[in-house]
Amino acid sequence: MNRSKQTQPRHIPVLVNEVCAALITDSSGIYVDCTFGLGGHTSALSSLLNTDATLIGIDQDRSALDQFSQNSIQQNLHLVCTNFENLLEVLADLEIQKVNGILLDLGLNSFSLDDPERGFAFGIKGPLDMRFDRDTHLTAEQVVNEYSEADLANIMFRFGEERHSRRIAKRIAGMRMQKPLKTSEDLKEAVRASVDRRFLNKSLARVFQAIRIEVNRELDVLHEVLEAALQSLFPAGRIAVISYHSLEDRIVKNFFRDKSQDIPLQPGMLDEEVRIPQLARITKKPITATAEEIALNPRSRSAKLRVAERTAHA
Ligand SMILES: C[S@@+](CC[C@H](N)C(=O)[O-])C[C@H]1O[C@@H](n2cnc3c(N)ncnc32)[C@H](O)[C@@H]1O
Fold it and tell me: Which of 52, 219, 221, 291 gives 20 to 30 Å between its CA and that of 86?
């Protein structure tokens, strides 16, 4: 038996039964897992699909893809290390035009979260990195030390919904005049010095989330992949998105709502203003984890799953 695998904590994919039930419309179809991570959802899909199905796994974090052993997958599996904003190019390279299902399970995988070298967790001392893809240039250290105080405050307010963003930005600006902030512990210190101890953990979570979103352009690429997914689905094909915070969920909710609304022709209206719905919402309200799942996997507590289906209209 492989010792390293034996000691790995068991990875539990979030809302896995709900995702599989919502996504599979053709057991021999083509499915894209845009956030392959440790392969949890892909493995579950694989166990339910026919052997002539095709699976495509995308992740920009090479260390996650390298963890995966393909032995358990019976189907044709293509693993591609890239940002999911490149979905259309990935499909074109594989000479695939349309697919039956697309999954996005947003955020970061537990392997990277626990890796001190990546600097994602405020509970683990590590360098201020926070890049999902370590080949990209912008790091958390650059954001924290090189952005203006006003830009830092805006990022923490917009991407972390942090009420004390100005105070924290001011503290960071003061600290970095003495010496640059280098580690997650340095950033933690700036927050600790700016907010009441009672709110410290919540503020830390919000500040680390905000910097991570900025480093990885997470909200921009989410907009882009949703548009690309819409273009890539067969009629009756489905997209399922799991998000873990309100900023992402709002983008998904609004996108599904906008694309599922028709705008009928009215007097004086131009032809291009008429819109036929491209999506039908399968979930009007998001699916959330049961108490049993949360007890088993605390990460599922904040998960929201939304699903939509491509209509027959081009
Ligand atoms: C929550 S984890 C997915 C876990 C996976 N569903 C599983 O069960 O193992 C999210 C993954 O998406 C990847 N990811 C996040 N944003 C991405 C992006 N823009 N492009 C490609 N991969 C991305 C992260 O590197 C991470 O591995």
Answer: 52
Atom of ligand 1 nearest to the CA of 83: 20
Ligand 1 pocket, residue 29 CB under 6 Å: no
Which residue is listed with tokens 């495509």? 56
The number of the ligand 1 atom at minimal distance from the alpha carbon of 242 is 1
Which of 109, 102, 132 is closest to 241 using CA atoms?
A: 102
Inter-axis angle of helices 218-232 and 200-216, nearest 10: 60
* Residue showing tokens 């067969």: 234
Residue 101 CB–ligand 1 contact under 6 Å: no
CA of 37 to the centre of ligand 1 (A): 5
DSSP string, 41-63: HHHHHHHHS-TT-EEEEEES-HH
CB-ligand 1 contact for 13 (6 Å cutoff): yes
pLDDT tens, the chain, 314 aa long: 343 443 445 678 999 999 999 999 999 999 999 999 999 999 999 999 999 999 999 999 998 898 888 888 999 999 999 999 999 999 999 999 999 999 999 998 888 888 888 988 888 899 999 999 888 889 999 999 999 999 999 999 999 999 999 999 999 999 999 999 999 999 999 999 999 999 899 999 999 999 999 999 999 999 999 999 999 999 999 999 999 999 999 999 999 999 998 777 778 887 777 778 999 999 989 999 999 999 999 989 999 999 999 998 65
Ligand 1 atom index nearest CA of 132: 25
Ligand 1 neighbour 300 (Cβ under 6 A): no
Q: Is 244 in the pocket of ligand 1 (CB under 6 A)?
A: no
Strands 76-81 and 99-105, how do they pair?
Answer: unpaired
With tokens 């210190």, the residue in question is 189
